Structure formats: structure tokens, C-alpha cells
Amino acid sequence: MTALLALTGSLLWGLADFGGGLLTRRLSALLVVVVSQVAAAALLLPAAMATGAVQDAGPRLLCAVAAGLLGPAALFCYYRALAIGPMGVVSPLATVSVVVPVGLGLVLGERPGAAQAAGIAVAVAGVALAGGPEVRGTAVGRQAVLLALVAAFGFGTVMALIAEASEGGGLLLALCVQRVLNVAVGGTALLLAARRDPTRTLPAEGLWPALRPRLPALAAVGIADVAANGAYALAARGGQVSVAAVLASLYPIATALLARGLLRERLRPVQAVGAGLALVGTVLLAAG
After folding, report:
1. Which of 268, 262, 279, 265 has the alpha carbon at shortest distance from 11?
2. Axis crossing angle, helix 142-165 with helix 171-196, rounded to the nearest 10
3. Of 57, 127, 132, 148, which is the most exposed, with the fewest CB atoms less than 10 Å away?
């Protein structure tokens, strides 16, 4: 069950990242972050109130607060990187995020079995190969690489915080608090940025005319993102954090394949080999 949930989260994150990166080529990254997270919060807030999830509040909820404060910055960096560089190259860099939850699992005493340890090594190597060949080339600027790496460590920290906040059954409340704070922090940043330089933050044709045709896509990005967080938290709670984190970190493969199929971004042979190794690693993890 851990493997299935983690892989579901991986697929949902891949879809959300592809959609977010695509939207950021038309809208500012900060605007995409805020509107997509508003959609997620609008879904979670009534659900949390209707189910009485507030009763699950406790000290662990502070981890969700921290995740909500950090999340918008990580999303902004990642969507911006996807917008200025090829998705099939930038997205695998985000797998560095796995270092945080895997490291935490090892610190807490988790020791994966032989098959799982091999799976972790093969999967991480495969994802690195999937994006590595062009990192030094002109297709990906230094800014895109730096943004992707900053986002990766942010994502890894958020993954660990949400898994901790949801311990004891408070997953719905943790996700709700995280999203509400995402909107508050991101919205404040958007207002400040729009006041400082509206031409770079707001669409030239006007906010509503630009958002109206893209609202379904923006909502889908936000909902897929929160569903992925939920799936990962359940996976980490039900099994080893290190295994769940590696399986969930395969989402860049989905993003790269979508970019290849829909945007015709070309994958080099070594990138295809990397994707294959990631799948082999997934099988080893699931079998272990």
C-alpha cells in the first residue's frame, strides 16, 4: 500500500508540475502559485469544517504551519524554472528533494532491506541521468538550475513537515492549514510584487481576462498538488519514510514524459536510460 500511495502522489505531482510550468509561460509564477493554491484551499476548508477535523489540532500542527510558510517560495522557484528552461531537463533536478525525507528516515533509525536499498540507489541514479546531460548546456541557464535546486530542498522539507503534521490522523487539518497559509503568504507576496512592478506580475490584458479561460487548469494544478501531498503523507505514515520519499520523488519522470509527448521536447538516449532505471528502482522498492 505504501508503494501504491507514493506512486500515486508521484503521478499527481508530475501532472501538477507540468500544468504549473505550462501556465507560467503565460502568467507570472507568483500568480499561478496563488490562484492554484486558492482552489486547493477552497476545497479543503469546507471539508475540514464539515468533518470536524479541527478536533485533531495539536502541537504537530506547527509543522503544517511551517510547511505553509515555506511552500509558496518553493513552488514559485520551481514554476519559474520550468518556465525558463525545458521541462524535461529542469524537472529531474527536483529529485534532490528526496535527500531531506530520506535523511530524516535514516536519522530516525529506518534501515531499508537489501532490495529496497538497491531500489533507492537505482531510482535516484536513474532520475539524475534523466536530467543531467543538458544541465551544463545552453538550454538550461544557471538561473533555472539554481531555482530548481532551491525548490527541491524546499519540497523535501515540506514533504517531511506534512508527514510529521499528519501523524495521529490529522492529515486533512494539516493539509488545510498548509494551503490557507500558502494563500496568505503567496497573496501577500503577489500584492507587494504587483505594487512594485505590475507589468512583470500582472497580465497585460488585465487580471480577469487572463485568468478566466485558465481557471480550470489553475484549479486542477492546485487540487492535484494537494492530493499528491495527501497521498505521500499517507504513504510515509503507513511505511518507511525513506521508501515512500524515493517513490514519490519520481514525479519529474511524469513531467518529462508529458513534455516529450505534448511539447515535443526531445529526450536524449541517456535520459531515456535514466527513466528506465527509475522504473527498475521502483519495481525493486515495491517488491521489497
Report:
1. 279
2. 150
3. 57
Distances (CA, A) of 268 to 135, 260, 272: 13, 11, 7
Angstrom distance (rounded) from CA 49 to CA 27: 32
User: What DSSP character marks residue 105?
Assistant: H
For 285, phi and psi rounded to 5 degrees? -65, -45
- Residue located via cell numbers 479541527: 54
pLDDT, average across residues 58-70: 92
Count other Cβ atoms within 10 Å, centred on residue 233.
Answer: 26
Supply the mean pLDDT for the chain: 83
- What pLDDT band is residue 204 in, cutting at 50, 70 and 90? confident
C-alpha grid cell, residue 113:
532491506
Residue of 177 and 243 predicted with greater confidence: 177
